Structures are given as structure tokens and as C-alpha cells.
């Protein structure tokens, strides 16, 4: 591996391509209010040179019949470190995409590709100087992807969710 070269992720391009496609599924988690069911949708596709973009939507169904809808879209670019990708969330004054600033209360995202697992992590610096880390592990499975989500604040596990995502018919 050559430092300063973003091409080090080229060795992962074959593995990364296995993740490309659209997936839908569900998860159930145990929360303070009881069981919580979620509908999930994820699309992973190529982005520029050896990167990828990730779009995901979560619809949480509550016991009172209401639902909460959240959607995100983030592009990731390879870094000089093999299998590690930086988020390209905002354009700087030179027109290049850069990550957000965690010291300004924005989440800092990065991704790591290892074997059959694509992990995306978000670091948030809280108002009181603490931290929160959200981790999304998407593992290749015969049906599509298995998802494990965890949320940790200052070392304390706040939430863990497991889900199954099926690859859409005809998706490569």
C-alpha cells in the first residue's frame, strides 16, 4: 500500500460490488416503550472512482399507530487506508466533498469494508462533550443483507437492532 494514494481500495472493489443493489426488510427491537417494528430500505451503488453511495430509509411503527420516517443519503470515497472510506457530505470552497464537522455538532461518518461486512459508523460529539457512536453493520447473506445497528453513548449501549434485508429481484 502506498500512502497518499486513494487507489489502495482498488483491491476491495470486487468485494464492494457484491453489496451493490436495493434491499428491503424489517427489524424488531426491544425499546423502553416495548417492541418496536421498523421497515427498512437500503440502496448501495457505485460512486465516482471506487467509492459508493448509500441511501437508507427507516420507518418506525409505534404502538399508538403513528410512524416515524427517516431517510439518509451519503456518498463514500476511498482513503489511502485499504478498505476505509470517508464520507463526502458537503462541498468545500474548492468544490471538493468533505465530511461534516463533529465539533460543530454534526455527525462524522466513515465506512469500513472487511470480508463480507460493510460497516458504517457515525461519531457525534454531544453538547456536554460526551460522545455517541452509531454503528451499522451490513453483512452479505444468501437472501441479501443482515443488519446489526448499535447506538452507544459514553460507553453505554443504548440500543441494538437486528434486521434482515432481501435483495430486490433483478438487482445485481
Brief overview:
It contains one helix and twelve strands. It is mostly beta strands. The chain has one domain (6-167): Lipocalin (Beta Barrel).
Could you please describe the fold and organization of this structure?
- There is one protein chain.
- This protein is mainly beta and 172 residues long.
- The protein has a single domain (6-167), classed as Calycin beta-barrel core domain (Lipocalin), CATH 2.40.128.
- 3% of the residues lie in helices and 62% in strands.
- The chain contains one helix and twelve strands, in the order αββββββββββββ.
- The chain has one helix spanning 13-17; strands at 21-31, 34-47, 51-61, 67-78, 84-88, 90-91, 97-98, 108-114, 117-125, 131-141, 144-153, 156-167.
- The strands form two sheets. Strands 1-2-3-4-5-8-9-10-11-12 form a ten-stranded antiparallel beta barrel.
- A hairpin with a 5-residue loop joins strand 4 and strand 5 (84-88).
- It is globular.
- The two termini are 30 Å apart.
- Residues 1-11 have low confidence and may be disordered.
Amino acid at each position: 500500500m502506498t500512502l497518499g494514494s486513494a487507489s489502495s481500495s482498488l483491491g476491495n472493489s470486487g468485494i464492494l460490488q457484491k453489496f451493490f443493489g436495493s434491499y428491503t426488510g424489517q427489524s424488531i427491537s426491544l425499546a423502553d416503550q416495548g417492541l418496536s417494528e421498523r421497515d427498512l430500505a437500503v440502496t448501495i451503488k457505485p460512486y465516482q472512482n471506487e467509492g459508493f453511495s448509500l441511501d437508507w430509509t427507516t420507518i418506525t411503527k409505534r404502538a399508538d399507530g403513528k410512524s416515524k420516517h427517516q431517510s439518509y443519503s451519503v456518498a463514500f470515497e476511498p482513503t489511502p487506508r485499504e478498505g476505509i472510506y470517508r464520507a463526502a457530505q458537503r462541498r468545500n470552497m474548492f468544490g471538493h466533498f468533505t465530511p461534516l464537522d463533529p465539533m460543530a455538532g454534526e455527525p462524522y461518518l466513515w465506512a469500513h469494508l472487511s470480508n463480507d461486512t460493510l460497516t458504517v459508523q457515525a461519531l457525534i460529539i454531544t453538547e456536554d462533550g460526551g460522545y455517541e457512536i452509531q454503528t451499522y453493520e451490513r453483512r452479505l447473506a444468501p437472501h441479501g443483507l443482515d443488519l446489526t445497528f448499535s447506538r452507544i453513548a459514553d460507553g453505554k449501549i443504548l440500543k441494538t437492532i437486528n434486521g434482515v434485508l432481501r435483495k430486490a429481484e433483478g438487482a445485481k
